[in-house]
Every structure is written in structure tokens, then in C-alpha cells.
């Protein structure tokens, strides 16, 4: 884990956040909200209204156990491989994040990190997709789905993604 005495997390080159998938993502076997109930007890899913607390170093993990998304007490939301290698972070080090929640309001679907005053400090910018949920895949990819359609992803499980041409 990163401590508050260390500098902000630096990610390996080629790791990047996307506002939508640019390459095919792994298929999702989670039923779309509305087709069947989303299994809120799965270890790899952050469902609507669920959150990760920085006070508890809240985490969800891939089904194979190799990847964990952790809301750390130093404010970083970090994806770890094999419990040691940080492969993605939301770059909120020491900014006072107390929780990251999968929003569930009627017009939402945003993954948001909040401080103790309730001020949003970071988001996936996926609003307008009610019922959206986050999955930590066995290859290390983080994906937000709206139904079965991926709407946001962090590609950490394969070759680096190239930015789309302007």
C-alpha cells in the first residue's frame, strides 16, 4: 500500500484512462440491470449505491483474485496486480477522499470520489447511465457497463491503447 509519506503514484507508460473503449473489451457475463437482478455480492462488482471507503481501505477484486481495486486511506483509488504492483490510480493522493461510490440517482451512473464535505474530487464522467456498474476483470481491466455495453474503461490487461485520432 502507498503511505501518506510517499510521493504521488506514478504509473507505467502506456497505462491510460479512457472515456470509452477504443478496442474490444472482454465479454461480461453479468446480466443487465432490468433483465435480472445484478448480483451485488460478487467480489468483482461495484454495483449502484455501493462504495469503497478510504477509512477501511475498501476493495473489490477480480474473480481470480489477481487484481484489487482499493480506496486507500491516502485518497488514491488504486488498481493492484497480485497485491503489490500498482497499475492504475485516479491521482487523488492526499486530497481527502473518504469514499468512492457508484452513483445510482435516476440520471446518474457515475463513479465518483468524494471528500468528507461531500465535494466530488474525481469522476469517471459516465453520468446519464442509470444502473451502471463497475467490474474488475480477471485481466486487470476496469470497466463500467451500462447494461451490457461498456461505457468507460481502464485498459490495464493488454497492450497499451492508442488514443483515437482527433
From TrEMBL:
Domain of life: Eukaryota
Residue span(s) of domain Bulb-type lectin: 43-157
InterPro entries in the record: Bulb-type_lectin_dom (IPR001480), Bulb-type_lectin_dom_sf (IPR036426)
Cited SUPFAM superfamilies: alpha-D-mannose-specific plant lectins
Name of the protein in its database record: Bulb-type lectin domain-containing protein
Transmembrane intervals: none
Region listing for Disordered, in residue ranges: 1-27
